[in-house]
Amino acid sequence: MSIHKPSAITTARLQLRPFQAEDWREAHAYASDPEVMQFMNFGPLSEDQSRDLTRNLAASADQYPQTAYSFAITLLSDSVLIGGCSLYRVGAPEGKAEMLYLLNRRFWGCGYMSEAIRALLRFGFDELELQRIFGHCDLDNPASARVMEKAGMAREGVLRQERWIKDQWRDVIVYAAIASDGTAGL
Protein backbone atom coordinates (compact mmCIF):
# COMPACT_ATOMS: atom_id res chain seq x y z
CA MET A 1 0.00 0.00 0.00
CA SER A 2 1.37 3.41 -0.85
CA ILE A 3 1.46 6.06 1.86
CA HIS A 4 0.42 9.47 0.65
CA LYS A 5 -0.77 12.55 2.48
CA PRO A 6 -2.73 14.50 -0.12
CA SER A 7 -2.05 18.08 -0.97
CA ALA A 8 -4.01 20.29 -3.34
CA ILE A 9 -4.91 19.08 -6.82
CA THR A 10 -5.44 21.76 -9.46
CA THR A 11 -7.51 21.46 -12.64
CA ALA A 12 -8.40 24.06 -15.26
CA ARG A 13 -11.16 25.58 -13.08
CA LEU A 14 -10.93 23.90 -9.69
CA GLN A 15 -8.73 23.18 -6.75
CA LEU A 16 -9.29 20.03 -4.72
CA ARG A 17 -7.71 20.42 -1.30
CA PRO A 18 -7.99 18.52 1.97
CA PHE A 19 -10.96 19.61 4.06
CA GLN A 20 -10.32 21.93 7.00
CA ALA A 21 -12.52 22.03 10.09
CA GLU A 22 -13.45 25.64 9.35
CA ASP A 23 -15.01 24.60 6.01
CA TRP A 24 -18.12 23.42 7.81
CA ARG A 25 -20.34 26.43 7.02
CA GLU A 26 -19.70 26.19 3.28
CA ALA A 27 -20.13 22.41 3.39
CA HIS A 28 -23.35 22.87 5.34
CA ALA A 29 -24.74 24.95 2.44
CA TYR A 30 -24.98 21.78 0.33
CA ALA A 31 -25.12 19.08 3.03
CA SER A 32 -28.28 20.64 4.48
CA ASP A 33 -30.02 20.92 1.10
CA PRO A 34 -32.71 18.21 0.75
CA GLU A 35 -32.38 18.21 -3.04
CA VAL A 36 -28.61 17.65 -2.91
CA MET A 37 -29.01 14.92 -0.28
CA GLN A 38 -32.08 13.16 -1.72
CA PHE A 39 -30.13 10.11 -2.95
CA MET A 40 -27.78 9.83 0.03
CA ASN A 41 -28.24 7.39 2.90
CA PHE A 42 -27.71 10.24 5.37
CA GLY A 43 -28.81 13.85 5.67
CA PRO A 44 -29.87 16.50 5.12
CA LEU A 45 -27.51 17.54 7.92
CA SER A 46 -28.03 19.93 10.80
CA GLU A 47 -25.36 22.56 11.53
CA ASP A 48 -23.91 20.36 14.29
CA GLN A 49 -23.81 17.34 11.97
CA SER A 50 -22.11 19.38 9.22
CA ARG A 51 -19.56 20.66 11.73
CA ASP A 52 -18.83 17.12 12.97
CA LEU A 53 -18.65 15.66 9.47
CA THR A 54 -16.27 18.36 8.23
CA ARG A 55 -14.09 17.94 11.32
CA ASN A 56 -13.94 14.18 10.68
CA LEU A 57 -13.11 14.67 7.00
CA ALA A 58 -10.30 17.05 7.95
CA ALA A 59 -8.95 14.61 10.57
CA SER A 60 -8.94 11.69 8.13
CA ALA A 61 -5.87 13.15 6.41
CA ASP A 62 -3.85 12.52 9.58
CA GLN A 63 -4.86 8.90 10.09
CA TYR A 64 -2.39 6.08 9.51
CA PRO A 65 -2.81 3.98 7.60
CA GLN A 66 -4.92 6.41 5.66
CA THR A 67 -8.03 4.80 4.20
CA ALA A 68 -10.03 7.93 3.32
CA TYR A 69 -8.95 10.79 1.07
CA SER A 70 -11.44 13.65 1.20
CA PHE A 71 -11.17 16.88 -0.74
CA ALA A 72 -13.03 20.16 -0.61
CA ILE A 73 -13.77 21.30 -4.17
CA THR A 74 -13.13 25.02 -4.59
CA LEU A 75 -13.30 27.33 -7.58
CA LEU A 76 -9.83 28.27 -8.74
CA SER A 77 -11.02 31.79 -9.57
CA ASP A 78 -12.16 32.80 -6.07
CA SER A 79 -11.60 29.81 -3.70
CA VAL A 80 -15.35 29.39 -3.03
CA LEU A 81 -16.05 25.90 -1.68
CA ILE A 82 -18.66 24.30 -3.95
CA GLY A 83 -18.59 20.63 -2.97
CA GLY A 84 -16.59 17.67 -1.83
CA CYS A 85 -15.31 14.35 -3.12
CA SER A 86 -13.64 11.38 -1.46
CA LEU A 87 -11.94 8.08 -2.11
CA TYR A 88 -12.38 5.32 0.46
CA ARG A 89 -10.13 2.26 0.25
CA VAL A 90 -12.19 -0.90 0.53
CA GLY A 91 -11.37 -4.51 1.19
CA ALA A 92 -8.26 -6.39 0.29
CA PRO A 93 -6.22 -6.21 -1.77
CA GLU A 94 -5.51 -2.54 -1.23
CA GLY A 95 -5.89 -1.56 -4.88
CA LYS A 96 -9.59 -0.70 -4.79
CA ALA A 97 -11.47 2.41 -3.64
CA GLU A 98 -15.02 3.74 -3.63
CA MET A 99 -15.66 7.30 -4.74
CA LEU A 100 -18.29 9.63 -3.25
CA TYR A 101 -19.15 13.21 -4.14
CA LEU A 102 -21.56 16.08 -3.38
CA LEU A 103 -21.96 19.44 -5.10
CA ASN A 104 -23.76 22.60 -4.05
CA ARG A 105 -26.91 22.84 -6.18
CA ARG A 106 -26.00 26.37 -7.32
CA PHE A 107 -23.15 24.82 -9.32
CA TRP A 108 -25.01 21.92 -10.96
CA GLY A 109 -24.85 21.70 -14.74
CA CYS A 110 -21.48 23.47 -15.11
CA GLY A 111 -19.29 20.38 -15.54
CA TYR A 112 -17.46 21.01 -12.28
CA MET A 113 -18.08 17.60 -10.75
CA SER A 114 -16.94 15.64 -13.81
CA GLU A 115 -13.78 17.77 -13.83
CA ALA A 116 -13.23 17.07 -10.13
CA ILE A 117 -13.84 13.33 -10.58
CA ARG A 118 -11.30 13.14 -13.42
CA ALA A 119 -8.74 14.73 -11.08
CA LEU A 120 -9.73 12.37 -8.26
CA LEU A 121 -9.27 9.38 -10.58
CA ARG A 122 -5.80 10.59 -11.62
CA PHE A 123 -4.88 11.03 -7.95
CA GLY A 124 -6.13 7.53 -7.14
CA PHE A 125 -4.30 5.85 -10.00
CA ASP A 126 -1.09 7.91 -10.03
CA GLU A 127 -0.54 8.75 -6.36
CA LEU A 128 -2.29 5.92 -4.52
CA GLU A 129 -1.50 3.29 -7.17
CA LEU A 130 -5.06 2.00 -7.14
CA GLN A 131 -6.19 -0.55 -9.70
CA ARG A 132 -9.96 0.05 -9.50
CA ILE A 133 -12.07 3.05 -8.50
CA PHE A 134 -15.82 2.65 -8.45
CA GLY A 135 -18.84 4.75 -7.65
CA HIS A 136 -22.56 4.27 -7.74
CA CYS A 137 -25.65 6.36 -8.05
CA ASP A 138 -29.35 5.84 -7.59
CA LEU A 139 -31.13 4.48 -10.64
CA ASP A 140 -33.37 7.58 -10.52
CA ASN A 141 -30.41 10.00 -10.51
CA PRO A 142 -29.39 10.35 -14.18
CA ALA A 143 -27.42 13.54 -13.48
CA SER A 144 -25.01 11.63 -11.25
CA ALA A 145 -24.72 8.88 -13.86
CA ARG A 146 -23.78 11.54 -16.43
CA VAL A 147 -21.10 12.91 -14.08
CA MET A 148 -19.37 9.53 -13.94
CA GLU A 149 -19.79 8.94 -17.68
CA LYS A 150 -18.35 12.37 -18.51
CA ALA A 151 -15.42 11.60 -16.19
CA GLY A 152 -14.72 8.53 -18.34
CA MET A 153 -16.01 5.82 -16.04
CA ALA A 154 -17.68 2.73 -17.51
CA ARG A 155 -21.14 1.58 -16.50
CA GLU A 156 -20.90 -1.93 -15.06
CA GLY A 157 -24.48 -2.70 -14.16
CA VAL A 158 -27.37 -2.28 -11.75
CA LEU A 159 -27.41 -3.61 -8.20
CA ARG A 160 -31.02 -4.20 -7.23
CA GLN A 161 -32.22 -3.16 -3.77
CA GLU A 162 -28.62 -2.29 -2.83
CA ARG A 163 -29.01 0.79 -0.60
CA TRP A 164 -31.40 1.77 2.14
CA ILE A 165 -32.20 5.43 1.45
CA LYS A 166 -34.95 7.49 3.03
CA ASP A 167 -36.80 4.44 4.40
CA GLN A 168 -36.77 2.34 1.25
CA TRP A 169 -34.50 -0.04 -0.62
CA ARG A 170 -33.07 1.54 -3.78
CA ASP A 171 -31.44 0.21 -6.95
CA VAL A 172 -28.05 1.67 -7.86
CA ILE A 173 -25.98 1.86 -11.03
CA VAL A 174 -22.30 0.95 -10.61
CA TYR A 175 -19.58 2.74 -12.57
CA ALA A 176 -15.86 2.03 -12.46
CA ALA A 177 -12.52 3.08 -13.86
CA ILE A 178 -9.67 0.59 -14.08
CA ALA A 179 -6.07 1.82 -14.14
CA SER A 180 -4.89 -0.68 -16.73
CA ASP A 181 -7.63 -0.33 -19.33
CA GLY A 182 -7.89 3.41 -19.77
CA THR A 183 -11.62 3.55 -18.94
CA ALA A 184 -11.11 6.88 -17.21
CA GLY A 185 -9.88 8.50 -20.41
CA LEU A 186 -6.82 9.75 -18.56
TrEMBL record:
Start and end residues of each N-acetyltransferase domain: 14-171
GO terms of molecular function: acyltransferase activity, transferring groups other than amino-acyl groups
InterPro entries: Acyl_CoA_acyltransferase (IPR016181), GNAT_dom (IPR000182), N-acetyltransferase (IPR051531)
Keywords associated with the record: Acyltransferase, Transferase
SUPFAM superfamilies cross-referenced by the UniProt entry: Acyl-CoA N-acyltransferases (Nat)
Family under the similarity heading: Belongs to the acetyltransferase family. RimJ subfamily.
PANTHER family given in the database record: [RIBOSOMAL PROTEIN US5]-ALANINE N-ACETYLTRANSFERASE (PTHR43792:SF8), GNAT FAMILY, PUTATIVE (AFU_ORTHOLOGUE AFUA_3G00765)-RELATED-RELATED (PTHR43792)
Protein name, per record: N-acetyltransferase
Organism of this sequence: Capsulimonas corticalis
